[in-house]
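Record format v2
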Amino acid sequence: MAENTYLIRGAAILGGDAEDLLIRDGVIAARGNGAATHEAAADATVIEAAGLVALPGMVDIHTHLREPGREDAETVETGTRAAALGGYTAVHAMANSNPVADTAGVVEQVHSLGRDSGWVDVRPVGAVTVGLAGEQLAELGAMADSRARVRVFSDDGICVHDPVLMRRALEYVKAFDGVVAQHAQEPRLTAGAQMNEGAVSAVLGLGGWPAVAEESIIARDVLLAQHVGSRLHVCHVSTAGSVEIIRWAKSRGIDVTAEVTPHHLLLTDELVRSYDPVFKVNPPLRTETDVLALREALADGTIDVIGTDHAPHPSEHKECEWAQAAMGMTGLETALSVVQETMIETGLMGWADFARVTSTVPARIGRLEDQGRPLETGEPANIILVDPAARWTVDPDKMATMGRNSPFKGRELPGAVIATFFKGHPTVLGGKLNVPYRHPETAGAVSGN
Amino acid sequence: MKHLLSTQDLSAADAIRILDTAEEMAAVGEREVKKLPALRGRTVVNLFFEDSTRTRISFEAAAKRLSADVINFAAKGSSVSKGESLKDTAQTLAAIGADAVVIRHWASGAPHRLAATDWIDAAVINAGDGTHEHPTQALLDAFTMRRHWARLHGTESQGTDLSGMRVAIAGDVLHSRVARSNVWLLRTLGADVTLVAPPTLLPIGVEKWPCKVSYNLDETLQAGVDSMMMLRVQGERMNASFFPSTREYSRRWGFDDTRLRALDELGLKDTIIMHPGPMNRGLEISSAAADSPRSTVLDQVRNGVSVRMAALYLLLSGDTRETVPATTQSSKESH
């Protein structure tokens, strides 16, 4: 059998009719009736996919891989293993590493670590400002021109709150078709913030993170994007009010995209009553009203994409008092299931919509040419097979990520990733990690030794 | 009860049981030998991550009157200030053999973490956590109010609640664990609570609390108040623009001499004035009010020991009650 040829039999393409897919040399060689009779099918590895849904490999617009600097929390290797298991073929690695990804050198390092790992495409996000300090633009052009070809720029974790700096960043990235991904959080309104400000924070005596601190920044930024004619992406939208502002901006033709995390589609601030820091995240878990508005916005296209904001932390940063704990949750290995639970099983979306919000549009925002493509003959074979009938109970100890901080621990969720094909190579088979993809030049280097 | 973490989850039956037990404990405090053998051989740790001499000595006196061994663990000058985690501290106390941990912490929810994790298996008593709760303060306040309310009605305190009592709580509600614990407990005991504060010092979401909210202290007094509780206001709030100046705060929300006289003019001859201490005389309460016969400030301190004895006793001795005179306690609550 040829090592690089796979015949997927009877998968429901985007949840539609069952068809065959023939993968060869990293591309889809044939789809449908012709696949099994294709000359290359004879020595293909056959994967029976009856009952499974075939989707384009997922693209995460918002991942924290922690390397370099916090290899005790996650490495590019462990984070991308988690990504492959979660159905991803590309992730955008956020810039808040140590050193910060604010130079061509650091983004190239992260990019090359990703290539060496071979589980997914790792696309580094460049910092907007030097050291995420919000004072001076980082060398955005150098990062764009580097081998990492950065197109998404973000100070994620910290808001680019200075309106002049934000305006300049939005203007400057037009030169290389970049986008500024804003972490919308007005800093003065959120000093000491611990959780959503509302009925629950009033009772718990935890510092409030008011919705207006997110909404006021988004309102300002969409107006700035309009004024300078640039592209804005809003990270992890969490409130019903933000949805209204983005809907308004889109109706005015402003070039804004927005993401929502799986956890904001499912969890609410009621969970904070336990004071368990596994539920501490930024932006914080909001109310049921917000959750329902976010689901509706994702279904109607106001919110464009799912971003996991996968944020692994060592256990000591969560096994402590709420106020002492780090903010963030893991998400790569649960994203598909949570979105299935909240969007598909509720009837708000179908699998074709799922492909749009987890693959097609995030790839477009990040300008990834060979990701998020249709499952058609001649297209790159970044494909996942999903068993929508599976049900499983989340156990963080069994995850590939080093982070044990999953807020879904103990929950039963639907949907399982059975196989992930990255560049036509199965990184995941039978729901388990297979072997990583070896880039031709990497393989050559190895054989040359 | 396994722990005493908040008054929000305290049933009326449990609250009255603690107050009734505290009455028995108060009787012990009036004896020549103020000591019971109830907790002999048991170890109570006062784990204080925040300075509070008043609360700590109150708990210490309570535990010692019950013959418990007391260890005081202050975060300052200990390994905690060198970066030891709450988890390690708790596991250390477990290894030492603590039966109860009385915890004061600057972080809201820290006592809940001790109780919910497997770091330590001891009974946990919340002695004030951040801006969340201070349940024994609310219980001692309720104890003080209940004695007053029962005396007015010519009855014994035992077994009674605060039905019909009008309580006003004025001050920095936003940052006050005392206010939160009092709101829940007083409501559970049947009192009618009004919070009085500048809007900046009330939390967003207060409208869902089981109480009335007023921005006007004079109107609240005119409507009739049986217990007027003043909360400590920290002058540094002024710097964060919660109010323009301490003088303006004092004029609008402080219990000053004019308002003390107003109680007489309004015919509220039995209204008591409460304060959890420490007081800012001249800011939220005038000296004349603090020192007037209406003031229960020292009664509150005294009653604090009785209430804390009751809490320690009920949590640590379960249903072995032979060392305390039989009370009117209802059957054991299942928890």
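The domain at 5-54+378-442 of chain A is CATH 2.30.40.10 (Urease, subunit C; domain 1).
The longest helix of chain A spans residues 211-228.
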